[in-house]
Design brief:
CATH class of the largest domain: Alpha Beta
Radius of gyration: 22 Å
Number of domains: 4
Shape: globular
Distance between the termini: 37 Å
CATH topology of the largest domain: Rossmann fold
Strand order of the largest sheet: 2-1-3-4-5
Largest sheet: 5 strands, parallel
Low-confidence stretches: 116-123
Bound molecules: 5'-deoxyadenosine, iron/sulfur cluster
Helix content: 25-40%
CATH architecture of the largest domain: 3-Layer(aba) Sandwich
Strand content: 15-25%
Number of strands: 18
Length: 440
Amino acid sequence: MRYHLTSFGCQMNDHDSERMKGLLESIGYRESETRDGADLILFNTCTIRGSADDRFTGNLGDARRIKRENPDVVVAVGGCWAQAQKAMVFEQYPFVDIAFGPGEVSRLGELIARERIDAVGAFSFDGAFSGTLPAKRDRPHQAWVQISVGCNCVCAYCIVPAVRGRERSRTPQDIVDELRALADDGVREVTLLGQNVNAYGRDLPKDERMSFAELLRAAAAVDGIRRVRYTSPHPKDMREDVIAAMAETPEVCRHLHLPAQSGSTDVLRRMRRTYSRERYLELVHRLRDAIPDLSLTTDIIVGFPGETDEDFAQTMSLVREVRYDGAYTFVYSPRPGTEAAERMEDDVPAEVKRERIQALVELVQEVARERSARFVGTTGEVLVEGPSRTDPSRLRGRLSHNITVNFTGDAAPGSLVDVHITGATSTTLTGRQVPAAVPA
Ligand code: 5AD
Ligand code: SF4
């Protein structure tokens, strides 16, 4: 039996997809290159913005066609979109056989065995972190490690708490065991994952509790793990002990993705982000004081209900002031059931949203270009990931700062090498390996 999986959305979803693949292969399925050649067509979906829904439902049309040609094919839809739609999945898309939420990945085998499920399951968290299931990793030397799932925040625009549920942390013992097993399997870099990753541990019973700062240090101490990253933190939970753990632990990378969402205190209040522009900037200064040369990236939404020209100008000036190394920028998209969609008018005209996002993207690129230029002429340690995507005779890897480097050299994937940086664009660097490769 063959399966074909299409994954949408964030790293948490990509990771859940690795687990789905691992689980399917453990019960005898093999991966099909094409959707047409599969007995099981599986989607792991996202619903963060309307555009995510559209991208996925476009793909569903393809599954409908295949199913019409071959009614024995099983169509399964997992993840956040399925969770948000609930029973509507089967009403609107009757050719879908199985639907399950992001908390039910471990039940996939059972769902398939039963086949033709015509009612959506309980849509609950089944108690098994996907981190405890077998995984099929795409990257030999890098791994995602789920440390918590769910989110207790109430950001007015965000559908994640509704689809991923309340925050639940894995025990430190579970996480460290997984890290050890990954290191034994050749993994050198791990990214700790959670919807609100730095709130880790607060829901654990006292005798099992470990703070996020302690967990960072514990992860870095695992033999063989050379780099530790994490995503995504909430600025409100970015405490002094976490900053100290980053500053004092060389394995913890010199990069932080710190979603700001807006530079306007007014908008931030209506978004229920619980910090002001000033508090965010003050945090950035403390981070930069403690961790010199830290790279910072962020998420920004434009066109949130009520966003004025002045509010948007504040967002532009935040980008200039923080000097981000990169940013993901989004046009506000009302999500059914969220506070913003239900109680605020989506009053920024589409044309204004378009102008704002264009101006923001240009500014982000300009600042990122200035930032990446600081590496030219320096030598930095790169974790080799494989051949360069554009020129296979060269190598590709990343600095601790999370910027990609394409370089000439002969180091093996998984090793850490020094690379002298000779060129930069806003998103990538070029360089050449300098002698003294450190074995993996
Ligand atoms: N509209 C636009 N962007 C959103 N994000 C989350 N919800 C929405 C929405 N309704 C963005 C936020 C978040 C990122 C993952 O997606 O910036 O950090
Ligand atoms: Fe998409 Fe959010 Fe679900 Fe990730 S958690 S897949 S971004 S809806």
